[in-house]
Design goal:
The protein contains five helices and seven strands, in the order E-H-H-H-E-E-E-H-E-H-E-E. The protein is α+β, with helices and mostly antiparallel strands. The longest helix is centred in the N-terminal third of the chain and has 20 residues, at about 25-45.
């Protein structure tokens, strides 16, 4: 197991990438279980993560396997932040598949455990993912967020993302409708 995670006493953040997360089978299993718990809890509370109902453990495992495979191929980046031995959050981006879009990637998911909100976890993870995008020569990093997710939109703006579009009332959650907000970070201008 990663030595930085063996001591439960420290609350210093430890950020791991896909390779580090999967090098130890015990850590990989713990990460998958914790990621599922975080996603299921957040979705159950109405978080804007793409699900209406909490995802199953199998759905999360399949998603993470896909992202790890893409990361190994240089087509994605996955980061997880631990506080002590506990997963506080994770996020990932994936490179666009179309040949004309290959220099670009989409920040598809950023999930922070409710208990860790306000502790800089989202900022640390997003900054690490931006650094990974630069290393992989990503030119433009995009994302979309639900319009009522003010904390996330504020975080992304503070890191240099700008809004490039909005679909009014596009996201349907039961009878409620929310805007889908598109943001981008042009890494060509921030070299």
């Amino acid at each position: 197991m990663n030595p930085a995670l063996t001591s439960g006493a420290t609350a210093e953040p430890v950020v791991l990438d896909a390779t580090e997360l999967t090098a130890d089978p015990q850590l990989a299993a713990r990460f998958e279980e914790s990621a599922h718990r975080i996603l299921a809890d957040l979705v159950a509370k109405g978080a804007a993560l793409g699900w209406v109902e909490p995802p199953s453990r199998g759905e999360v495992a399949e998603l993470l396997d896909d992202v790890v495979c893409a990361a190994r191929a240089g087509d994605a980046a996955l980061r997880a932040l631990f506080l002590g031995r506990e997963l506080a959050g994770f996020g990932y981006w994936r490179r666009y598949a179309r040949p004309t879009h290959r220099p670009h990637a989409d920040l598809e998911k950023l999930a922070v455990d409710g208990a860790a909100h306000g502790r800089g976890v989202g900022r640390t993870l997003t900054a690490a993912l931006i650094a990974d995008a630069r290393e992989q020569h990503i030119e433009v990093l995009t994302l979309d967020a639900r319009g009522d997710n003010t904390p996330a939109l504020t975080l992304y703006r503070s890191l240099g993302f700008t809004e490039y579009g909005r679909l009014p009332d596009f996201v349907a959650v039961g009878e409620a409708r929310y805007d889908k907000v598109f943001q981008m970070l042009d890494l060509r201008r921030r070299a």
